[in-house]
Amino acid sequence: MAGNTNTAAFVQLLKNDNTVRKTASDMRLFNKWLRCNNEMRLAEEIPVTELDKCLARFFMTVKKDDESNYEPQSVRSMQSSISRYLTEKCAINIMVDKEFHHSRDVMSAKLKQLKSMGMGAKKRKADPFTAEEVNLLYEKELLGAGNPQSLVRTVWMNNTLHFGLHAPGKSTQL
Questions:
Q1: Which domain of life is it from (predicted)?
Q2: Measured between alpha carbons, how far is 32 from 115 in angstroms, rounded to an integer?
């Protein structure tokens, strides 16, 4: 039977390096915030009721070094990192444990606030072709009926422009 040391080493070995790095970075930020707010204990040493209040204030006030706001997904990612750290250290899950309901409510409010400020996922939209660009493609015979390849390109471009097709497979929805 394998010992706990072997299984713990196995789990540690297979952790994603980027996740480990992100968790450490977010915990440094949270611990720095705690110290700046006169809390000298580590996160895992703070009783859960106090920790919930600290997390709520952290989520509400966290800013970048230049005092600008983080993107909503970045703040949500910090919550996940802190939860991951606390789950590993002391079996606390701030994402689901009932003791952390207040900090989750503050997180939701903060995300709504950031989104109302225009932050967050934005739809990416390509700039449309200008008439000059289209004419240039025809002049260089990249579009047109001059050869089979340019004809295929012309049909594809017309379909995407006029039918709003974006990706392979969407043409089956015509």
A1: Eukaryota
A2: 26
Query: Per-residue DSSP letters for 9-53?
Result: HHHHHTS-HHHHHHHHHHHHHHHHHHHHTT--S-GGGS-HHHHHH
d(CA 155, CA 47): 65
Its pTM stands at: 0.67
CA atoms within 13 A on the CB side of 111: 15
- What is the largest distance, in Å, between two alpha-carbon atoms of the chain? 75
Q: Tokens for 107, please give them.
A: 């997180």
CA atoms within 13 A on the CB side of 159: 16
Query: What is the distance between the alpha carbons of residues 21 and 151, in angstroms, rounded to a whole number?
Result: 50
What six digits make up the tokens of 72?
């909503």
Residues with Cβ within 8 Å of 141's Cβ and at least 6 positions away in sequence, in order, are: 147, 150
Nearest CA-CA partner of 29 in 79, 72, 73: 79
Kindly state the tokens that stand for 172: 């089956």
Tokens 């025809």, residue located: 138
Retrieve residue 21's tokens: 């790095």
